[in-house]
Amino acid sequence: MSTVGMSVTLGTTTSAVAIDDVSVRFQSKRTEVTAIGQVSLDVAPGEFVSIVGPSGCGKSTLLKLVSGLLKPSSGSVTLLGEEVRGPRHDIGFVFQRAALLEWRSARKNILLQAEMRGMNAAEAGKRADELIEMTGLAGFENALPHELSGGMQQRVALCRALLHQPRVLLMDEPFGALDALTREQMNVELHRVWRETGTTVLLVTHSIAESVYLANRVIVLTQRPAVVKEVIEVDLPAERDYSATMARAEFAAATAHIRDLLGAVTGHD
Amino acid sequence: MKPVSGDRWRGVVERTWRPAALLATCLAIWHLITVSGLVEAYLVPSPSKTFQLLVDKWSYLWGHTWVTTYETILGFVIAGILGVLVAVAMVYSRTIESTAYPLLLFAQVIPKIAIAPLFVVWLGFGFEPKVVVAVLMAFFPVVISTVTGLKSVDTEMLELSATMGGGPIKTFVKIRFPAALPHLFAGLKVAVTLAVTGAVVGEFVGSNEGLGYVILQANGNMDTPMLFAGLIVISVVGILLFLLLDLAEQLMLPWHSSRRGAAVTTLLAKGGT
Predict the structure, then answer these.
(1) Which of A206, A247, B57, B171 shows its CA 20 to 30 Å from the CA of B139?
(2) In the predicted model, is pLDDT for residue A4 greater than 60?
């Protein structure tokens, strides 16, 4: 179905991310809460997968499983061919809040990634400058976080997550705190960055339009305990102009379908 | 973006005229009380007499001021280092936290003036017991503020750090400790004023030098001008040490200070409570 060339030819290689029959249960005082029921998901290298679902259904939990920040109660997660057993260092992570160190300039916040990893300083600096250029941060390198707008802060967080050229990028509602217009701009930029870097992306979002515009596939989760309700293949060209994409019939159909699914699942109880 | 010097001075004037006016008013009231004859002159000396004494007896006072300042700074530095170390241990180990907290609280609530004689018995009449009392006074706010600071770090920031693979030491040095500095400085500023009190209390109990000794001597001689002079010098020492820390904070944490307003403002906010 997909017209995106990338993911079609990758069937034979190993998945970038393989979530296999995973469930997560939290033990609270008296009751046991199942956050995630049985979830399985394969993400091909270079693929962009969006995850949508009702609030509090465990979308973010899914990303924490992939990054190894959380252990599944059952099942297994495999990242880049290696089972996840603890925090993984071969990923990039972007949170809803930029989580920047307020005493460091934009550039130094990006370079934190390099310092923590002990990367070669000269190479990291060069890479940081490239990313600053790519994300339109040029001219703001030396600004402190509180001098930057929300969109700019999130660009810094994105650069930091991409500095070490991770093969998998995890994004947890990265644009949720931005205004609508900034959000659209960030969508366009993320799309371009993804096309340029070829990184595998898992994006958790509340915005249906965002999920469809950016992704090869959209995973719709049910309410807690979350299971995969449906997987939607996004039938859009690889090169996506924002306005033109919004106007396409396929886009309208996909968003309407997802909205129906979410309405259906939230209407259950 | 440097302000022109005229603007800069206007800023200084704007920030300082209110406290200066308040201080002048207090001095005026003090003066009026002494000239009105409501209070006997030997009970409350006039401001002019007190300041005259400060000038006349400066060399005598200076020697004692230096002793008290030395004890204060030594006590403050020891309390600062110990406080941060204990706070770090408590934040990183639940066991240490739950074990040490009751003892810490006990050390805090016990009246320092009541145990000061014990230190004189143990350590003699030198500077050591004064430093110990200063440490005991200053220690607690440092621990509490550092613990709060170290715990105030975003969990997201720590999770991010885990995915960056920096390990606990790098995470502490590059993320946790710098993030705790604003809290730590707040604690240090309270601590330094308490260290002054601690040193003076230590001197009260047994000494032959320092501003506490000066005040006790003046008290014995019914020398109220000297008593007042001693109080003023103690206050000035405390205020100067506080301002020094405020300056250090501004230099070390410009990212924080710029969002928080000027030094004099915080001095008033803290001094007012």
Answers:
(1) B171
(2) no
